[in-house]
Amino acid sequence: MTPSSHPGASGTLTAFAGFERLARGDRQEVFAQLRQYTGGAPLLIFDDTSGALVDLDLREPAPEPTAAEAPRSVGRPKLGVVAREVTLLPRHWDWLGRQPGGASVALRRLVEEARRIHHGRDTVREAREAAYRFMTAMAGSLEGFEEAARALFAGDRPRFAALVAAWPQDVAEYLQGLAAVSWSNENDPT
């Protein structure tokens, strides 16, 4: 693992044995690397985008990526359109019904506009939540955890960096990588 390889690349995983980073790559690469692991420390595998723990059963043959087939439903499945339930007040349905193209077109337009307007804020929130998920699993018992979590969500980068610097190197580096996006987008108005 080189210092230049950092979390955040879509579709990649990182595996830790205790506080030591063992593997990083796509699901198949990590599976292959971990199959050779003979140490006794428990393995924890994280999604590099969400910071969430990933369940990877090393007893089974290498997992094949599969596209989950959704049950046939209303909508336009070939276009990726899936029907779901939305609960609104009658006045909301009335307004949507009066919009050009109808309710579906109006809702899609509103969602896209909100995504565009709040992109920067959403990116910061998602990066901080990913960092916190990882922190909780890997560093919840380390000294300064609560203060580091407060600094993360307060956007206090220098304090956060100072607190996690005392943690095991692989954990601190990975955590800094997860949080990096939140610092660079913090002042982005889009």
Describe the protein.
By secondary structure, the chain is mainly α. The protein has a domain at 120-184. The protein has helices at residues 27-35, 90-97, 102-117, 119-139, 145-154, 157-164, 169-184; strands spanning 13-17, 20-25, 43-47. The chain has a three-stranded antiparallel sheet with strand order 2-1-3, sandwiched between helices. A hairpin with a 2-residue loop joins strand 1 (13-17) and strand 2. 19% of the residues are buried.
List keywords for this structure.
3 strands, three-stranded antiparallel β-sheet, 190 residues
Query: Tell me about the biggest sheet?
Result: 3 strands, antiparallel
Name the helix and strand elements from N-terminus to C-terminus, one letter apiece: EEHEHHHHHH
Structural class: mainly alpha
Residue share in helices? 40-55%
What does the secondary structure layout of this molecule look like, with pairings?
Layout: E1 13-17, E2 20-25, H1 27-35, E3 43-47, H2 90-97, H3 102-117, H4 119-139, H5 145-154, H6 157-164, H7 169-184
Antiparallel strand pairs: 1-2, 1-3
Helix pairs in contact: 2-3, 4-5, 4-7, 5-6
Task: Summarize the structure in short.
The protein is built from seven helices and three strands, in the order ββαβαααααα. Helix 4 runs antiparallel to helix 5.
